[in-house]
Amino acid sequence: MQTCVKCVLNDRYPGLTFNPQGECSFCEHYQHFKPIGEEALIAEFERARHRAARKKIGFDVMVPLSGGKDSTFMLYLAARKYRLRVLTMTYDNGFLSDLARKNIETTVSRAGVQHLFVRPDPVIRQKVYRAMFRLTGDICGACDIGTNTSILKVSADHKIPLILSGVSPLENDSFVPDSIQDTARFRHVLKESGTLTRREINRYMIYPRLNYFSQTLLKRTGYFGRLVFPLFYIDNPSDKEMGKIIHEELGWTDSTASEYTKHFDCIAEPFTNYARNCIYGYERRICQYSNLVRRNEITREQALNLLEQDRLWEMPAGVEPVLDYLGVEKDDLPGIFAYPPRKYERYTSRVNRLFGRIKKMKDKLAS
User: If you count DSSP H runs as helices and E runs as strands, how many of each does the chain have, helices first?
Assistant: First the structure.
């Protein structure tokens, strides 16, 4: 296995190439992040304020809140820095950590904003996770679909103009080759499992026929809130600085499990990363540590040390409750991890594939 001499990505990453010096294609062509600009972000906020005032809506923006670092920083920006009227919501995926719950309670209180917990039917949610894990080795896509559609539903119910996502440039390229958020693929896998009725699938998905085109159309018409990624508009503080700001301003507490923490809000995350590493040969943390190296926030040696501490090639400790929830034994895992990547890609939405190609063309022209 070849690993980049500058970051820690390896040749299992889809499409990654190496130059004669051993640099991966991401490092070779890396350009430092250039924000869109705060003026454009403030203009988005002013439009949201104007619409909320004109239609007598109680909130300017919604912030989906996981209790982790990025979403809490988004709450800080919205409530404290830009003084917006904020509704926060949390999707209960069944794996929310105690620390995340405490952070949500503390930060919402300190920010002085309203908060909603969205809890899907627990029986259906468990059946969905079990079916997806047994057939694909993944539950994160199912969680993403449940989270995203719940966010849209809350924005529609409360007529909120703007949804602020905490996704940051640090998470660029942290993907797997399977389209795990594609709803057509998702429906097909669940039907193939034979463990859920059509009614149960539709109830979990909320909007079972939603695709990128219809979603975009409904956002443009104002039925759903418009999704904005503020961390792509402004100069971001470092990962460490971000944690310090929200600790001081909102009483947020970081996990002590690792020097650099992401997704500690989900107790299943260590296991899902282990599963991804077994199936694909890489996972989220390798991608994020590599981005930290390129951003000069840590050195390559530090990234290698972090990966050594994470030991993602080993079964994580305390995994029994997660396996229990998924209804699998450790002996079942080798068969599940033999999943051939992209097995269900032919069942993805044609509309989504077309939109994906158009987006790639637009990004290429923009660069």
Answer: 16, 5
Question: Which string of DSSP letters, residue by residue, matches 37-88?
Answer: -HHHHHHHHHHHHHHHHHTT-S-SEEEE--SSHHHHHHHIIIIIIS---EEE
Query: Based on the number of CB atoms within 10 Å of its own CB, is 203 exposed (0-12), middle (13-18) or buried (19 or more)?
Result: middle
Assess contact for 158 and 202: CB atoms under 8 A: no
Range list of β-strands (E), the chain = 61-64, 86-91, 114-118, 162-164, 226-228
Q: Give per-residue pLDDT as tens, 118-151.
A: 999 999 999 999 999 999 999 999 999 999 999 9
**Could you say which DSSP state residue 346 is in?**
G
Q: Which has the closest alpha carbon to 11: 288, 271, 280, 276?
A: 280
- Angstrom CA distances, 99 to 106, 137, 241, 354, stand at 10, 26, 20, 41
Instruction: Give the torsion sign (CA, 302, 303, 304, 310).
Output: positive
Q: Which two tokens stand for residue 37?
A: 């600009």
Asked if residues 327 and 130 have their Cβ atoms less than 8 Å apart, the reply is yes
- Burial class, 170, CB count within 10 angstroms (exposed 0-12 / middle 13-18 / buried 19+): buried
Buried b (16+ CB within 10 A) or exposed e, 314-335: eebeebeebbebbebeeeebee
The sign of the CA dihedral 194, 199, 204, 208 is positive
CA distances from 1 to 13, 226, 241, 287, 362 (A): 11, 42, 34, 16, 34
Whether the pLDDT of residue 192 is over 90: the answer is: yes
Which run of H or E residues covers position 192? helix 183-193
Q: What is the CA radius of gyration of the chain?
A: 20
The answer to pTM > 0.90 is: yes
Enumerate the β-bridge partners of residue 227.
163
Q: How far apart are CA 171 and CA 194, in angstroms?
A: 34
Angle, to 10 degrees, between the axis of helix 183-193 and the axis of helix 198-205?
Answer: 150
